[in-house]
Amino acid sequence: MISQEFDFHAPTTVAEALDLLAANADDGKALAGGMSLVPAMNLGIARPTTVISLNRLSELDYVREDGDVVRIGAMTRHARIVRDDVVSGRFPLLARAASVIGDVQVRNRGTIGGSIAHADPAADYLPVVLALGATFRVASAAGGRTIAAREFFQGVMATALAPDELLVEIELPLPPPHAGTAYLRLARLEGSFPLANAAAVVDGGPATVAVGGTTAAPFVLEVDDPEALDDVERAAREAAVDAFPDLAATAEYRRQMAGVYARRAVEAALGERKGG
Amino acid sequence: MRTTIEITVNGSSERLEIDTRQNLVGLLREQLGLTGTHVGCSTGNCGACTVVLDGVTVKSCSVLAADVDGREVTTIEALSSGADDLHPIQQAFVANQGLQCGFCTPGMVLSVSKLLEENPDPTADEVRHAIAGNLCRCTGYQLIVQSVLEAARIAREGAPAAA
Description:
The structure holds 2 protein chains of 2 kinds. Helix content of chain A is 34%, strand content 25%. By secondary structure, chain A is of the alpha+beta class. Chain A has 3 domains: 7-52, Uridine Diphospho-n-acetylenolpyruvylglucosamine Reductase, domain 2; 60-173, Uridine Diphospho-n-acetylenolpyruvylglucosamine Reductase, domain 3; 193-272, 2-Layer Sandwich (Enolase-like, domain 1). Chain A has a 5-stranded antiparallel sheet with strand order 4-5-10-6-7. A 4-stranded antiparallel sheet of chain A has the order 11-12-13-14, with helices on both faces. In chain A, strands 1-3-2 form a 3-stranded parallel sheet, with helices on one face. In chain A, helix 10 (229-239) packs antiparallel against helix 11 (251-272). Chain A is globular. By secondary structure, chain B is of the alpha+beta class. Chain B has 5 helices and 5 strands. Chain B has helices spanning 24-31, 88-95, 105-118, 124-130, 141-157; strands at 2-9, 12-19, 50-53, 56-59, 72-74. Chain B has a 5-stranded mixed sheet, covered by helices on one side. In chain B, a hairpin with a 2-residue loop joins strand 1 (2-9) and strand 2. In chain B, helix 2 (88-95) crosses helix 5. The relative contact order of chain B is 0.15. Classes of the chains: A alpha+beta, B alpha+beta. The interface between A and B is medium-sized, with 29 and 33 residues.
């Protein structure tokens, strides 16, 4: 039993959820899959007094191709992303990231929107959505707006979302047809958050590599010459100058691994490029 | 806050008044007396509280009871009515010493039952990935994997091996 008393709401439409968020902007907390929030409530670390469950919002559970973008509803669970043909065909690195989150039970319940809005610095999706140049669609009772992934992550579990805003959709532009992509992670145990993770998109010209798990917010680098792997590694190591230490790894180790995983992700993406 | 939910547990419909602070595992154990679902870490790590929710395994410590209104839950109690009526997966765990203290076993068995539904002939590696969310603190993984492979073989071939 959770010690903190709270009011519980389970709206069945997004509009209703947004009204509830607006009415409870001070103390309301949106609950998606709950894989981080409910354990934190069990431990008394998170003590919301109003919980707005999104688990009845089936309108936010989808993966759709729409011209030159793919749209993923925020309440799409990891297990669906792993199995979705559009995702694995268009964004194998996203399917890969989803497939290594937690474990079977966590993937059955956790959602892509929940993971992104929670913004754990080591979350598997973060470097992937950054490297792919995702845009997030957010909504509030007052209206809606879009936020580029690169503007969204601001620190440890800190994002550009206002208290009354809800992340409703992840919009991913299709990579160029011959692009190579990769997602890699360093974790000591299956199911652990990674100590470092990196995603890369390479398309003949400059490359994009994003690194998570080492700094308060994941970072993105544009790489002029992806074949110059030593430069990629050095640039990522320097970008991770403010790497954080914890019980699992020192700051210096994380800085080194930021470089190593950026390098390996770019190298792997080069190998995935189609038709040179 | 109190609220009323309707859920189907192991095939029977229940209408229950609950405290919204209750987790699904607390609801099962404390209100329904289904103590086969265990409480380990309460942080979604150990998997002792694994149940099947609408056809997929979840960790019931990390699901609010209020959030299962209208849903269907299956617990370990659905697999067997007692020691004389063990499910084939449970029999394989007994025959291969796939349990020591037994605390993780109900969650382990439910994870395995979903694995074998989807993949009747798993490799040892696939078994290990399928039970990655179920921790055995006795560290009896070798015999657990052996039990699962045996259960899969029996399910495919129908005849148990000689003891």
